[in-house]
Every structure is written in structure tokens, then in C-alpha cells.
Amino acid sequence: MVSFNLLLLVSLAYVAALFAVAFWADRRARQGRSAWLRSPLIYTLSLSIYCTAWTFYGAVGYAARSGLEYLTIYLGPTLVMVGWWWVLRKLVHVGRAQRVTSIADLLSSRYGKSNLLGVIVTLLAVIGTTPYIALQLQSVTLSFSVFAAEWPEGFRPPGPDATAFWVAAGLALFTILFGTRSLDVNERHSGVVTAIAVEAVVKLVALLAVGIFVTWGVAGGVAGIARAIEASPIAAWQLDSARWVSLTFLSAAAFLTLPRMFQVLVVENADERQLATAAWAFPLYLLLMSLFVIPIAVVGLGRLPEGANPDLFVLTLPLSADREGLAMLSFLGGFSSATSMVIVAAIALSTMVSNNIVLPLWLWLRRDRPGASQSGDLRRLVLVARRLAIGAILLLGYGYYRFSGGGAALAAIGLISFTGVAQVLPALLGGLFWRGATRTGAAAGLLAGFAVWAYTLYLPSLGEGGPMSAALMEQGPLGLGWLRPQALFGITGLDPVVHALFWSMVANTGAFLLASLLSFPTPLERLQSAQFVHALAQNSPAPGWIGGAGGAEDLLILAQRIMGASEAQALFSAHAARQGKQGYLPDPTAEFIEALERELAGSVGAATAHAMIGQITGAAAVSVDDLMAVADETQQVLEYSARLEAQQAELARTARQLEAANEKLTQLSLQKDAFLSQISHELRTPMTSIRAFSEILADAGADLAPDERQKYASVIQDETIRLTRLLDDLLDLSVLENGQVSMDMRAVPLSEVLERALTSTASVIAEAGVEIIRDRASEGRLLHTDPGRLAQVFINLIANAVKYNDSPGPKLEIRISEHPGCLLVDLIDNGPGIAPEAREMIFEKFSRLSDQAAAGSAGLGLAICREIMERLGGSVEYLPGQGGAAFRVRHPLRENLA
Amino acid sequence: MGRKVLLVEDEPNIVEAMGFILSRDGWSVASHANGETAMDEIRRVGPDVLVLDVMLPGRSGYEILRELRADAALAALPVLMLTARGQEKDRALAEELGATRFMTKPFSNADLRKAVNHIAGED
User: Fold this and answer.
1) What is the ipTM of this complex?
2) Of A260, A466, A678, A740, which sits most exposed with the smallest number of CB within 10 A?
3) What is the CATH number of the domain that holds A669?
4) What number of C-beta contacts closer than 8 Å exist between A and B?
């Protein structure tokens, strides 16, 4: 008799051994000594998670109930593996090339990196897998109860619920420890995979051992088995071809779409060549697993009492023969089948939940915070999300187990699960083989199939306590008979699974095809579809661009990147013109794209150009191989072109600066020429008079009348003074312009400065008879200024006003007004004013408006005024609209000078 | 009083000096200070020699010269260009436009006399 303690001890020892194996393999992998971990043997054995407790226990029960039909469960995967060249090879290749982390990720990636699809597939997977996990818990609980039946009356082992709970908790712990240990880029879990390979061996050995014992130890060899088969109901079994085909299809579909199978097949795959080995080795494994199913079933049916659960023959047969050691081994086989499935399923589902639901949600919530995706929080978030997801998934499985009461036959639950996850198949195959498949199509197919599956199979499986009442099952919703969950459209007599599979697949595929045909893919979808569908295509030497869908604008951006902006635009414009199109964007015809590719190839090489254009046009000539082959090159080219772009921009900037500098220099040079020319003129003009009159005085002085002599002498004198003043002004301006002059700042009242200026100009004012109108009340304002320089400004302005005012009653008004921060002194005369077009010029050097020497200035006065006012922090400007000429002097005020 | 010279020049002191020198040399001297109305004055006065300053208010001596040479009646009029700017390109421009003689200010009285007489063909 196997005591509870022994059973518990063995179970715990077994689990501990698994821990040790996983830990050891993880460490080896981390040390880089994992070559053998990547052997095809480990890969093949890891695929054995297909054989769960359902297969281990359930296959025998299935055979006992339905004869050879159990073989369909093995037949589907065998077909997939044998036919690996067509589907599996591509699936694994694409999965690895696109670095997908789960089947949800694969579909999301294929259909334009759609979040929506990721979420749908994740939910589907979680819902579809939950019964399956419940099934594993149930099988472990059942196997416990087999032993419990032999325990003494007084001993009270934990109830089935408690057993299931503790098994679930233990598995959660193991999965969290080894499944979420690190966040690898490739999502591979060496420890877990190795542990699963070990479990594969344990369950095979256990089943074979039981089979051998039953065949040769109980039935008396092959002949005995043959006789037992003859005597059993299995001999009378008739092939139900509908069920046979359906179930084979179903198991093949499930093999490809079950999250845990995808995990081991694609995600954990380290080398695509392993597939070639697994293609024959895994069917062999399945063959060995199924070899003794019929013998165990018939012997069990023959030997064990009526009513014994055939699902447990694997355990009860050794026990009935008092082979407790064998029973223990068998128990471990079932236990390992259950645990390996739950562990991998939990890893796969938690990856999906974290990557397709939690992360997008988190990024969406933090969309306003740029850089969030780069923060270190993310890794932690992913791991925490996965750990929580693992716990939640096992809790869900446990909840389903409790809810469904654990009564249904193992195989039935398995088939419900299979049908659920098989809904992914149309979108998956369509994604791999049909360019026209779109995200909308995939979503529509998934949702339609999922809805039909839930309505016809899943919800009814929850039984009377579930949402589907007996009345609804019998008469359909609202009495609509054609909507009866298990007889849609009045088709009755079908097995519920076949019925559900048929209708869900019809709805799924129909919606998928129809919506795909009616919807338009986004550019990213197009790109991804090319990468998926043409994943294995060979690179043909000169493929044509057929049906290119990329926009001319994208092509232009690409071309600009490589060829430079102007060349690219020239090329595009030329082609647009040749096509007779307006503007610079030609239609992306095959001819144009080929021409463009040739152009680009000249810069970046043929392969790169081809792949780059392919990326944009999504046209038929690109393959993932192309892209992979040139990925590095492309990256380098992009970096290179980005560098070129930067350099180009810098060059352009430098060129612009040079141009501006050159322009400025040219202008300066012109200004210098004009200035020198002006200076020359201003100097030579008085000199001409001086020379002429001095020669006259020298040559003919004696002939001249005294007053003439006097007059000519005074002309010479005046012109000399004019020359001196010109030189003074020039030096003054030069000093002011170079900023070499220091202002002698003092606090003085404005009146003092004005007084000084008016005194200096008193003689000209008096001569011209100009009336000066002052505002003495406002002149007391204190200014922080250089009084000499400011007076110079006023002298210039007053002199100008006097000089150019030719009206009969000349006046000059000096208005003063105060503004925040500045004092305004306006000098307004009643003369002719200055023409608007000249107002800009008057502050320039030598901008005298007429050459009248009578004005007696060199035209530097206003230029000097402007320089002085700028140095004082103020300004001087022409004030239009005052009748005569008006100038405004703006002087800054310092508040502390009250 | 056969020989007439017209001085188109805006600096009154220079006009006075040139007028003094040329009138002592036997020239009948007229002057005009504005560039804009200079052409009318030239036609009105009908000088034998024209002394033309470049920098004039209203209109430059170059423009006056160009118009002058385009006018059949005045195309042959001897013109002495005066400029205070004294750059080589000013001389080149003046000659290109058909100035008979070009002088840079300041100049000696003797040179002025010689130049005017020379272009008048009475050297």
C-alpha cells in the first residue's frame, strides 16, 4: 500500500529534482555552455508537452470509450511534423526572424503590429487554455484519489479541492521561479525546457513500463492482447469519418496554435535545423506514447470491475496487480505530464498578457511622459506583470476546476480547449500565405470563430450551472430553434465538437476572407505581410516590382536620404514630367521604381537598394532574407546617410554663413569705396577753392582791389575751417563707431544741456531769425548723461533745423515729454520737412540731401547724433507728420534721479 | 566777347574762382549750379566750351554729358569734366561718355586755363 506520506514525499522529491534540473540547465545556459541544450533531442522532447495528462491518462480512457479515435489526437501533430516543410518551417522562420514572443505577438506583428489583435488572441488563449489547466489539476487530483481509495478509513487525506489548490500553487511557484527569472530578448528558458525534456522521458518511460507490464505481465504477451481486443467493445468500433477528419484537423490546428506549443515550437527554438530532426523524432515519440494505449484499455476493460474510470486504467491496473512501484512511476508520469503542460502554458500566457495587454496599457497610460519606455522600470514591470499573470492564470484554472465540478471526461475538456485555440488558425495561415489578409479580416475571423465556439461548445460545457440553461439548449434562444447551440441552422445529429468546429471554422474563415477582401491594409501591414508571406522566398537576381503599393512620397524621402535632396527631387521631377504628371511626385509605376532602384543601387549597393525599396513599396519582390541580409548594411547606410545629412546641413549652414559674410564684406567694401569717394569729394572741394584763390592771390594779388583780396582770403579761411571741421567730424564718428570713446556720465538737468546747445548755435539762430519755442517747465528733469555729447546732438539738430528752414517766419519748437523709462525731446520746425523716401537715409554718412555747400556741413552730423544717442542708451529718429522736419531724441531715465 | 564758357558747378566758391581766372583769360563766363536744369541752360546759353562738374544737385554730370552727346546740336561741344572724387574709374567713365577733357579737383589755375583753351581749339 502506498501511504499518503510516501506519495507526497515522492511527488515533492520529483518536483525538487525538476527544480534541480531546471536550475542546473539555467546556469549552464548562462555560462554559455548550453550547446547540448540546443540539440534537436532536447527540442523534440520539449515538444512532448503536447502530451499532457490528458494524453497520458485520457488516451486510454478515450480508447476504452471510442476505440481507435484517440489516434486522431496523435495523427494531427504527426501530419504537421511530417509536413513541416510547408507550414512549420515558415512559421518557425518567421517567428524567429520577427523575434516574436508568443502567438499573440506573431499575429499582432503580422497584421501591422496591431495591439487589438494581440489582445484578442491573448484573451482567446487565456479563455481557451483555462479548461486545459483545470484538466491537468483534475488529473492530478484524480490520480491522488486512486491512491486515497486504499488508505485506511481513519486517515483523512486532503480533499480533491485542496489537492488541486496545492498543486496549482506549487506549479505557480515553479513557473515564476524558472519562467520569469530573467527577461531575455529571445524569451528562451533553458531551465524550463530542460526540465520538460526530462519530464518527457519520465512520462514515456512510465507509459511504456505500464504497457509492457500489462502486455507481458498481465495479458500474457501479444497474442493475449490480440485475444483481449477481440473480446472487447473496441473490436466492434466503427470509423466515424466526420469525427475522424474533424479531430485530426483539430489536433493539427491545436498543435500549431496552442500557446504552449507555439512557445516550445517557435519561441524556444534555438536553431531552425532542429525541425528536420523533430520532423521524424517527434512522430516517433507520439507513436511510442500511443503504442500501448489499446492494450491498456482492453486489459483494463477486461480485468477491472465494471464502472472503473477508464481514464485511470494506467494507475489502477498496476495497483490492482499490487505493483505499487509501477503505480508510483505511472503516477509520476501523469504528474509530469500535467506539470509540464501547466508550466509552459503559464509561461506562454503570462508572456502574452504582459506583452500584449499590460505593456501597451502601461505605455498608453504614460503616453504623456516621453522616455518612459526607456526607463529601467519597464523590465521590472514586465517581470512583475508576468509573475502576477502566472498566479492569475493558475487561479483561473483552479477556479474552472472547482466550477465545472471536475466531472467531465478528460478528453472532452481537452477537445473544447483545442477547438477554442484552433480559432487562431485561419488568421495564422492566412498571415503566412496570403498577402491580402488584413488586420480587420483577422480580427473579424477571430471574433466570429470565438463567438461561435463560446456559444456552441464552451458555455454549454459549463453545464446547468453555467449561463446556458437547459431550455436554451433544447429550444434555442427565444425559442428560435435554428439557433440551438448544438444544432445551428437545424443541422442535428452531429457530435457537439464536430458541430462546433464546423460552424466556428466556417464563421471564422468566412469573416476572415470577407473582411480581408473588403478592407484596406495600412502601409505597415503591407510591409509586414510581405515579410511574412515571402519569408522563405529566394532572392531572385532581377525581380520586377509588381503591384508596388508604397507611396511616391515615401520613396522620395528614402531617395533624398541616400542621394541628397536636390538630386532626388530632380530625378522624381524628371520622371513625373515623363509620366505627364504635374508636380514632382511621379506615380510609383514598376518602371519608375526600377529606375529609382538603379539610382539608389549606385549609392548603397543593389541588395540594399532593393530591400529598401521593397520595404516601402511592399511589392512582391522582397523577402525577409533580403531584409535580414541587408539589415546591418541598411542600418549602416542609414547611419551613414544620417551623418551625411548632418554634414550636409552643416555645410549648407557654413555656406550660408560664408555667403552672408561675403555679402556683408562686399557691402562693406562697397560702403568703404563709397565712403572714400565721399571723403575724397568732401576734402577736394574746399581744397579746390583754397588752391584756386591762393594762386589768384599769389599771381594777381597786386592787380586786385583790396576788398577783393580780403574776400578771397576769407574764402580760403572758411574753406580751411570747413576742412578742419570735416576731419574733426570724421575722427569723432570713427571713435564713436568703434566704441573707443568713454562717455562722461553725470547727473544734469536737461535745461543745462539745452542751454549749452542753444548758446553754441545762438549766432546761426540769430542770423536766420529763427524763433525758438521752449518748454522750460519740463526742462528741469535730471538726466544721467554725458552733457557734452548730448549737447552735441542738440547742436546738430538745431543747426540743421535752422539751416534747412527756408520758411518766412522760421520757428523751432523743443517739446519735452516723459514716458516710462525715457525722456523724449522733440525738435520740430516749420520748414519744408524731409521727403518720406529720404527719411531712411538721412542718418547715413554723407547723406546730405543736396550738395549745397552753403549748408556748410559734410553730412556727418546726423550719423554722429545717432552714434551718440546709441552710446547713451537712447535713440534719435525722424518724427513724421509734424508739418516741418521733426526729430525725436529719446533719452533713458534712471528712476533714482528724482 | 566771342568766346563763351558755361560753368555747371554747385560750389559757389569754385565758380567764383574759375570765373575770375577764365574771364581774365578773355572768356565770357556764365554759371549754373543745378544739375536738373543744366541742359536747358546749356541750350539757352550755347557756350563754346562747357565746364561740367560730376557731383551736382538734382542730376549728375555724367547724365548731362550722356544727353548732351546724344543731341546732334551739342554732340561736338567741347566739355571739360571736373570731379572731386578722383578715382580712375571716374575718368574712364567720363571718357567713355565723351568728355573732351577730364580734370580732378583741385587743379592749378594754369591747368584750367590751358585745358579750356585747348579743348576750345585755340591753344
Assistant:
1) 0.91
2) A740
3) 1.10.287.130
4) 74
